[in-house]
Design goal:
Strand content: 15-25%
Number of helices: 6
Distance between the termini: 37 Å
Largest sheet: 6 strands, antiparallel
């Protein structure tokens, strides 16, 4: 039996399940809105003009995107910030003119005007930031639609409604992205599979006439995966001094496909508040062999000031194009009560679409929530 200590941070935007938006409104993917078309479980989209936080460790690609965005904003607002600095110095000088003496009404009024100019310039910066953020949202939506139109990303037919709605303004760009990420996390939207291209050597025309074609025999590889290949067993889990501390045992069952012996398998653990807000996601590696068929992973993660959270654990083939080795394992933990396992639900393959979306946004940050 192998033991592993604290979890590693999740890599590449690998969300096991989408954070559930909280504001209620007609869902972009609901059957009623689509005229009875069968639809996947829909998030209740939330209108917002600010980047959405998914509580996931930012990826290198996301960091590059965010740095580029901040650099662009600094370049656009540099002249305004310089003007604000000059006005601030002038306002301080005017304020000193009346200090300790009979107030100079002209100077006082001038200082007030200068302060108002500073406020006006600061509002200009906010307008530029909002405008640039909306441009980034539009770029992300356009890239997603292009990927869907080109066939690089596959989505169900009813998702075409969302594309039509965002183009006509029936839903906001943020609502479209929220719906897209949610369905991608459920595996409903995913990247298109690629098939290897086999190139044969060219033969001269004379050789083609003389040599009988040799059939190409591709050996069959059984790399199948099912949800009964790995079990998850709770050892302990509680909240101690603001940290989620516990252990889960992972066991390869008799149904485990031997093809996966010696190969890395992903364990993603998601920590969520009682109202469904994702605090953080952690990623680990499992590696079973014929002689070592169980592993224990220990978790010790900060949950801020939360005294009750839900822990969800997944065992997948990878974080980018996952297939489930086990049903999702979920347990409610608190600082005062024993852990309470929740009946597990099946999680299918695929969060590749969500990963692509999160990289595009470049605003992936750890969310902080109260109790």
């Amino acid at each position: 039996m192998s033991l592993r200590s604290k979890t590693q941070k999740a890599k590449k935007f690998g969300t096991p399940s989408a954070p559930s938006p909280t504001a209620q409104k007609p869902s972009p993917t609901s059957p009623r809105a689509t005229g009875g078309t069968p639809s996947a479980p829909s998030p209740t989209a939330q209108k917002t003009t600010s980047p959405k936080s998914y509580g996931i460790t930012q990826t290198p690609a996301g960091q590059v995107a965010q740095t580029a965005f901040k650099t662009k904003l600094q370049q656009l607002t540099a002249p305004i910030r310089k003007t604000i600095s000059t006005l601030s110095i002038r306002a301080d000088e005017l304020k000193k003119l009346g200090g300790g003496r009979t107030p100079d009404l002209g100077a006082r009024e001038t200082e007030k005007n200068v302060r108002q100019q500073i406020t006006d310039e600061q509002n200009k910066i906010k307008e530029i930031e909002l405008e640039q953020h909306n441009i980034e949202l539009q770029n992300n939506v356009n890239q997603i639609i292009q990927s869907l139109d080109s066939g690089n990303v596959l989505a169900p037919d009813y998702f075409q409604n969302n594309i039509a709605w965002v183009k006509t303004g029936a839903i906001t760009q943020q609502e479209f992205l929220d719906s897209y990420y949610y369905l991608a996390n459920q595996g409903v939207i995913h990247t298109a599979p690629t098939e290897p291209i086999i190139e044969l050597p060219e033969l001269l025309p004379e050789a083609e006439a003389q040599i009988e074609p040799i059939p190409i025999i591709t050996p069959e590889i059984n790399d199948s995966i099912s949800t009964n290949m790995v079990t998850q067993q709770l050892i302990n889990f509680n909240i101690i001094n603001g940290r989620a501390v516990g252990s889960i045992r992972f066991v390869a069952t008799d149904n485990f496909n031997s093809f996966w012996y010696g190969k890395n398998i992903v364990n993603l653990v998601q920590f969520k508040t009682p109202n469904g807000v994702t605090l953080l996601v952690k990623e680990n590696r499992l590696n079973f062999t014929e002689t070592e068929r169980d592993e224990v992973i220990n978790y010790d993660e900060s949950v801020s000031e939360n005294t009750r959270i839900t822990v969800e654990s997944y065992v997948w083939s990878s974080a980018t194009q996952p297939t489930a080795f086990s049903n999702m394992f979920s347990v409610k933990i608190s600082a005062t009560e024993p852990p309470k396992p929740i009946s597990s639900g099946f999680m299918g393959a695929g969060v590749a679409g969500a990963i692509a979306g999160l990289v595009l946004l470049g605003f992936i940050v750890d969310s902080k929530v109260g109790k």
